[in-house]
Amino acid sequence: MTSATRNPGERGPLDAGAEAVALKSFELMERGTREQFEQLIHPRCVNHEAKDEPPASRQQHGPAAIYATALWLREAFAELRWEIHEVVSERDLVVVHCTMSGRHVKPFVSYDADGEVKEAFPPTGRRFATTQTHWIRVEDGRFAEHWANRDDLGTAEQLGWVPPSPLYLVRMALAKRHARRAARAGD
Fold first, then answer.
1. A Pfam family matched by this chain, by name (predicted)?
2. For the domain that residue 22 is a member of, what is the CATH number?
């Protein structure tokens, strides 16, 4: 447990600005700069959803890790947006129900527990829009912890990843081989 996390069930302090911090984080994911992430994200921020993300998103905490996640998503999906539907805030915890949308324009690569390329989905050019719920904890007026529930199957279906056609399976295998080679070259 890092100092940015607390024990389950432990109530955090009142943070009147928590909702604004949470909503700003979605703007940054769409188009924020590294400097903006440094200002908003707590230095010890933990993203509990980083297990399938690139090594840069999970080998470190804080702004650099969250910024790496943003770059990973922006690379694969053009016109990336989060439409906010509802926001519930209590003390230092904010829950955001939203729809993430975009267009799949470059390979989307997922990673295994060891940070190795697990799958690579070549671009389909298709659009998607699926619902998500994000739980964001704010500490010292900054984004400090993140959990999410996403409709990944809905996204995969809309983008044509599942069920895959035989041709798309071949494209996936080639994209996976390319991503693994690129990851090894970056070591």
1. SnoaL
2. 3.10.450.50
Residue 8 lies in a domain: no
Tokens of 174: 């080639």
H/E element, 109: strand 108-111
Dist CA 63 CA 60 (whole Å): 9
What length is written for the chain? 187
Specify if 5 maps to a domain: no
Report pTM: 0.89
Tens-digit pLDDT profile for residues 143-172: 999 999 999 999 999 999 999 999 999 999
Closest to 116 in 3D by CA, of 162, 52, 32: 52
Q: How many domains does the chain have?
A: 1
Non-local (6+) Cβ contacts of 143 within 8 A are 21, 22, 25, 40, 41, 42, 45, 66, 136
